[in-house]
């Protein structure tokens, strides 16, 4: 019986390492794969009042934030973390303050919530990205 008590922490550690390895494999297989070459994308910004700004862009960028930085009339602001990248809080000077009133900027790809944030979203030719101001009482994707 004593022998099993000594093996228990060892087996727990092995199980934790196996789970971490499995998660790493899953991430590697499902992470966004950037498309090389020139891409034509559309970016829309839908504000709280329903007004929409529309941008067409031809880019060599592989990730959305990289492409957005080349649009002179578009400003994206927020807080950045190493794990998640940029968390968008302000688009073209219009703030969505989740802490204040529950509103946020939803990031959509072809009308569906993006799987990744603006910093990690790989872009593909022909895609349409939308920053949608989303009030607290609405449902939508996250940014």
TrEMBL record:
Residues 65-134 form the Transcobalamin-like C-terminal domain. Pfam families: DUF4430. Gene3D superfamilies: 2.170.130.30. It comes from the Bacteria. InterPro entries: Transcobalamin-like_C. This is DUF4430 domain-containing protein.
């Amino acid at each position: 019986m004593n022998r099993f008590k000594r093996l228990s922490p060892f087996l727990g550690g092995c199980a934790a390492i196996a789970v971490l390895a499995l998660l790493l494999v899953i991430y590697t297989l499902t992470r966004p794969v950037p498309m090389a070459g020139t891409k034509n994308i559309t970016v829309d910004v839908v504000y709280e009042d329903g007004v929409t700004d529309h941008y067409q862009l031809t880019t060599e960028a592989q990730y959305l934030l990289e492409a957005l930085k080349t649009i002179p009339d578009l400003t994206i602001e927020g807080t950045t973390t190493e794990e998640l990248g940029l968390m968008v809080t302000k688009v073209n000077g219009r703030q969505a303050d989740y802490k204040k009133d529950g509103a946020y900027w939803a990031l959509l790809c072809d009308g569906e919530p993006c799987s990744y944030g603006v910093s990690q979203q790989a872009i593909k030719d022909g895609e349409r990205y939308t920053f949608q101001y989303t009030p607290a009482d609405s449902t939508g994707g996250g940014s």
